[in-house]
């Protein structure tokens, strides 16, 4: 926001660290450990940083 760069960012989330879960599945079998994230309000985070945040909830 400080440099007024016209940046657009799309965040698609499912509350998982999917790359870590994939690596655990490939190297350790079907184990998933510490891959789930707490919900994050990215729209609110954008607004707190001075940007504009939009949020769409699934129907």
TrEMBL record:
One GO MF term: thiamine pyrophosphate binding
InterPro entries assigned to the protein according to its UniProt record, in alphabetical order: THDP-binding, TPP_enzyme_TPP-bd
GO biological process terms on file: small molecule metabolic process
Matches recorded under SUPFAM superfamilies: Thiamin diphosphate-binding fold (THDP-binding)
Residues covered by the Thiamine pyrophosphate enzyme TPP-binding domain: 1-54
Name the UniProt record assigns to this protein: Thiamine pyrophosphate enzyme TPP-binding domain-containing protein
Organismal lineage: Bacteria, Pseudomonadati, Pseudomonadota, Alphaproteobacteria, Hyphomicrobiales
């Amino acid at each position: 926001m400080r440099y007024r760069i016209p940046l657009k960012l799309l965040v698609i989330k499912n509350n998982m660290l999917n790359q870590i879960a994939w690596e655990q599945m490939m190297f350790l079998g079907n184990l998933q450990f510490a891959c789930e994230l707490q919900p994050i309000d990215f729209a609110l985070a954008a607004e707190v940083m001075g940007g504009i945040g939009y949020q769409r909830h699934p129907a």
